[in-house]
Automatic annotation (TrEMBL):
Membrane-protein topology: Multi-pass membrane protein
Keyword Transmembrane: yes
Location of this chain's protein in the cell: Cell membrane; Membrane
Protein family (similarity comment): Belongs to the ligand-gated ion channel (TC 1.A.9) family.
GO cellular component terms, A-Z: plasma membrane
InterPro entries cross-referenced by the UniProt entry: GABAA/Glycine_rcpt, Neur_chan_lig-bd, Neur_chan_lig-bd_sf, Neur_channel, Neuro-gated_channel_TM_sf, Neuro_actylchol_rec, Neurotrans-gated_channel_TM, Neurotransmitter_ion_chnl_CS
Protein name: Glycine receptor subunit alpha-4-like isoform X1
Main location: membrane
Superkingdom field: Eukaryota
Length: 474
């Protein structure tokens, strides 16, 4: 008994800290270590801690996610509080009969073979501690060695934010070996106890303010090729689904209302410039400010994000409404500037139509043509003869359009200027249509803008929802 106590004191003196390293003298002379209930444990003399227990040793991984501390989109990192369990079978390690298991000091892991576990996407790992570090080493009666560690880990996750906020991020975490190939060590998920390997009643979904985080263990055998060959790995899938409700209420709904409010400017009389201009400019500036806020607070992406496409499109709709008002104002100004001149030109044209054409009569015919007339009240009234019927028809076919525009009645001067005249006519009619006092362009815009925005909304949501669904299935 005294010998065992002396050996225990030597073990504590040589390896009492967490950074205990195996001592050669301890390995040579300490064949027994005292444990609880006065039970002694004996390490085999031919035990080699640098060689796996057997050919194709299976290492089982179990993980219990206690909390998702946070998701950093800018750094593309996920912080988790987990309890990690690693177990394997080592036939050379036996415990006293009659005991289901024994707990070994944490420093004892330096004296036995342990797998060289490597977490591929691991950024940082810190073992949790209260009164002592949350780490334990246990050997069961069936020679199974189990290591349990409570730690806070930070995982690096590659994220793509093109579909933001409809994006679904997927992160694959591989637990494997960096030294042993799949022929020596294989890694699998533990499916024994309910809390191991995220099976049974284990909580595998966490709701954050902006995310729903789901953990799923991939039971398939994953292989990573590097170094000397193929290395086995157990994969944990992390799925980040974004909560869309907050984005609908904070961005999509207000921007849609701003676009709808801009349509109210079509109902305002064009002559009320301050009221209509303030409505459109204020709406436009609000959308620009919202776009700047969303771009600043959202993660970076290589392309335009989904929400940025929506806000830019809403801004364009409001800008087009403002541009339409500029066109209406130009039409009104054009109509007022040229109204008087058009009236003068129409009067001149009407007077030219009312004036009788000059009579070109041959003097010889005039001398031979009798002029007949009848005295009426002492006044002689001449009458044209039959030969002047053509002049009568010329006067009778003269029709006067006093209200018709001059561009509609004046013929083009030459065939070379016919196209220019037609284009000028079309432009004149277009400007007159825009500047009409009855608001013809505003009525047309009031029908066209809602239809275009509705079609854009249908195409937008159909396209991006299908892309998000396709990305989820991949």
């Amino acid at each position: 008994m005294w010998t065992l106590l002396v050996l225990l004191g030597a073990f504590v003196a040589l390896g009492g800290g967490a950074t205990f390293a195996p001592n050669k003298e301890l390995l040579e002379c300490a064949s027994q270590i005292l444990y609880m209930n006065q039970h002694a444990y004996k390490i085999p003399e031919n035990y080699n801690r640098n060689i796996p227990p057997g050919k194709n040793t299976t290492v089982y991984i179990g993980i219990n996610v206690n909390r998702v501390s946070g998701v950093d989109e800018n750094k593309e990192e996920i912080t988790l509080d987990v309890f990690l369990q690693v177990s394997w079978e080592d036939g050379q390690l036996q415990i006293p009969p009659g005991l289901p298991f024994i707990d070994l000091p944490w420093e004892f892991r330096q004296l036995i073979w342990t797998p060289d576990l490597y977490i591929w996407q691991l950024q940082t790992m810190r073992t949790m501690s209260v009164l002592q570090e949350m780490a334990s080493l246990r050997i069961y009666s069936n020679s199974t060695v189990s290591v349990n560690i409570g730690a806070t880990i930070t995982i690096k996750c590659q994220m793509d934010f093109v579909l933001y906020p409809l994006d679904v991020q997927k992160c694959a975490i591989d637990f494997g070996s960096y030294k042993y190939t799949s022929e020596d060590v294989r890694f699998e998920w533990h499916a024994g106890a309910p809390w191991r390997g995220l099976v049974g009643k284990q909580r595998n979904q966490f709701r954050l303010p902006k995310y729903v985080v789901t953990f799923v263990t991939d039971k398939s055998n994953h292989i990573r090729n590097f170094g000397e060959g193929e290395h086995s790995a157990a994969r944990l899938q992390i799925k980040l689904s974004r909560e869309l409700r907050s984005y609908l209420l904070e961005s999509y709904l207000p921007s849609s209302l701003f676009v709808i409010i801009s349509w109210g400017s079509f109902c305002v009389i064009p002559e009320i410039v301050p009221g209509r201009m303030v409505l459109l400019v204020t709406t436009l500036l609000s959308l620009v400010t919202m776009f700047d806020t969303v771009s600043t607070n959202s993660p970076d992406a290589l392309e335009l994000k989904c929400i940025e496409v929506w806000l830019i499109s809403c801004t364009i709709f409001v800008f087009l409404a403002l541009l339409e008002y500029f066109v209406v104002l130009f039409g009104i100004r054009y109509d007022k500037s040229w109204s008087k001149r058009r009236q003068d030109l129409r009067r001149a044209h009407s007077a030219a139509q009312l004036a009788p054409p000059p009579l070109h009569v041959n003097h010889s015919q005039r001398m031979g043509t009798p002029v007949t007339g009848t005295p009426q009240g002492g006044v002689f009234s001449p009458q044209l003869s039959v030969e002047d019927d053509g002049l009568k028809q010329q006067f009778s076919h003269q029709t006067i359009q006093r209200d018709s525009p001059i561009l509609d009645t004046m013929p083009p001067n030459g065939s070379s200027r016919g196209f220019i005249a037609r284009v000028s006519t079309m432009v004149d009619h277009g400007v007159m249509f825009c500047g009409a006092q009855h608001g013809a362009l505003d009525k047309f815009a009031l029908m066209l803008f809602p239809i275009c925005f509705f079609l854009f909304t249908v195409i937008y949501w159909t396209t991006y929802l299908s892309e998000a669904h396709r990305a989820t299935l991949e």
